[in-house]
User: Which sequence fits this backbone?
């Protein structure tokens, strides 16, 4: 009798629209895809590099603070950043083919909105555990990360500001460096990293030029067009390499890989839509080599 009642209650709940286990799994998969796993290291990678260069001893590498920052910028920060983007771009994303293939379109699910807000609140809790020297970098990340897509500023729809505001990607690393070292990161590294992110942003926007134009959205890429966007990205990546070379020649040489690969893409005629998806691998290789260099200094310097 009890089993029958339980089965009846479960069936009634499902019929009434109560979420099932499958619903929860589907929502989790959707949220995971929304967070762009291929791009997780765009936020978490700078954290790893920053820890390697900020640490003075091996013990500094794996503290609760450094691990906590890494965990937050791997997943919750990406849900926040891309969730805000998808919610406020729901109308224009109907013209974007990437959303039907490698990404997802916002479906108006309240669960997604609640999850994005929750990830934002979790990020605000970081202010309670990091030293004040890191607060400005964290605040900059959350301000730019939200206002890039959300009103009133919606930086992504204003040429040049869309590119400049993408310095937000270097701020997790800056905050982590400040938190671990107890002092601000080197200015040359911050400016060089900012230039790198500006180029990365505009390069990633080249495949969206036509969808954005059809949707009536103006970006740095739509204003410059394909060819001049390549020039803009190349100039920024060269500037980034020069700034890092002023810190350490080896870092500058490593970052020269970006304008070299960019030139290869342009002259070979490779479709930018295809080349765009190679960059997470390139970024991982470069970031790994930078991290190994930092770890070498910790262990052997």
Assistant:
């Amino acid at each position: 009798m009890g089993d029958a009642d339980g089965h009846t209650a479960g069936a009634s709940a499902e019929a009434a629209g109560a979420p099932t286990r499958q619903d929860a799994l589907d929502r989790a998969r959707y949220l995971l895809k929304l967070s762009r796993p291929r791009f997780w290291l765009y936020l978490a990678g700078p954290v790893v590099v920053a820890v390697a260069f900020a640490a003075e001893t091996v013990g500094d590498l794996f503290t609760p603070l450094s691990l906590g920052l890494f965990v937050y910028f791997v997943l919750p920060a990406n849900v926040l950043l891309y969730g805000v983007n998808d919610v406020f771009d729901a109308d224009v994303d109907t013209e974007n083919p990437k959303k039907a293939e490698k990404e997802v379109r916002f479906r108006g699910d309240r669960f997604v909105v609640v999850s994005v807000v929750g990830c934002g609140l979790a990020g605000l809790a970081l202010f309670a555990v990091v030293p004040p020297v890191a607060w400005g970098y964290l605040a900059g990340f959350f301000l730019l990360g939200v206002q890039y897509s959300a009103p009133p500023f919606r930086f992504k729809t204003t040429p040049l500001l869309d590119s400049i505001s993408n310095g937000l990607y270097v701020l997790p690393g800056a905050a982590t460096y400040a938190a671990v070292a107890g002092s601000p990161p080197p200015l040359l590294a911050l400016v060089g990293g900012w230039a790198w992110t500006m180029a990365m942003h505009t390069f990633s926007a080249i495949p969206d030029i036509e969808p954005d134009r059809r949707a009536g959205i103006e970006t740095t890429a739509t204003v410059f067009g394909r060819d001049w966007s390549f020039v803009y990205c190349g100039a920024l990546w060269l500037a980034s390499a020069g700034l890092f070379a002023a810190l350490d020649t080896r870092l500058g040489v490593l970052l020269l890989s970006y304008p070299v690969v960019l030139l290869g893409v342009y002259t070979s005629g490779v479709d930018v839509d295809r080349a765009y998806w190679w960059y997470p691998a390139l970024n991982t290789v470069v970031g790994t080599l930078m991290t190994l260099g930092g770890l070498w200094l910790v262990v052997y310097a």
User: Anything to note?
Assistant: Residues 8-16 have pLDDT under 50 and may be disordered. Residues 220-247 form the longest helix (28 residues). Residues 24-300 form a domain with the Farnesyl Diphosphate Synthase fold (CATH 1.10.600).
